Amino acid sequence: MIDQCQEEKKTEGLLKMHRMASFITARGVAATVGVGPKLGRSIAHKFAHERYTVVILARDLGRLSRFTDEIARQKKA
Q1: Do the Cβ atoms of 56 and 67 come closer than 8 Å?
Q2: Which residues contact 45 (CB under 8 A, 6 or more apart)?
Q3: Measured distance between the N- and C-terminal CA atoms of the chain, rounded to whole angstroms
Q4: Confidence (pTM)
Q5: 14-26 pLDDT, tens per residue?
Q6: CA 1, CA 77: separation in Å to the nearest integer?
Q7: Which of 47, 49, 64, 69 could pair with 58 as two cysteines, CB 3.0-4.6 Å apart?
């Protein structure tokens, strides 16, 4: 059951990334690897604020999902 839940979360994350990847700004793409709660997150937010398409990678899928949602909300604001 745990494996199925993890697979569902992984699929959800990949779908979210695919939707975001289809929206690449003229400004370019900023990839941030190793996004954690402090520095990486701040860097990703900075690029999003400057209207870049932001790609983030993190080991923790839950954290990645939360940060993706935060950045998407910031870009809409």
Answers
A1: yes
A2: 70, 71, 74
A3: 38
A4: 0.62
A5: 556 555 555 666 6
A6: 38
A7: 64
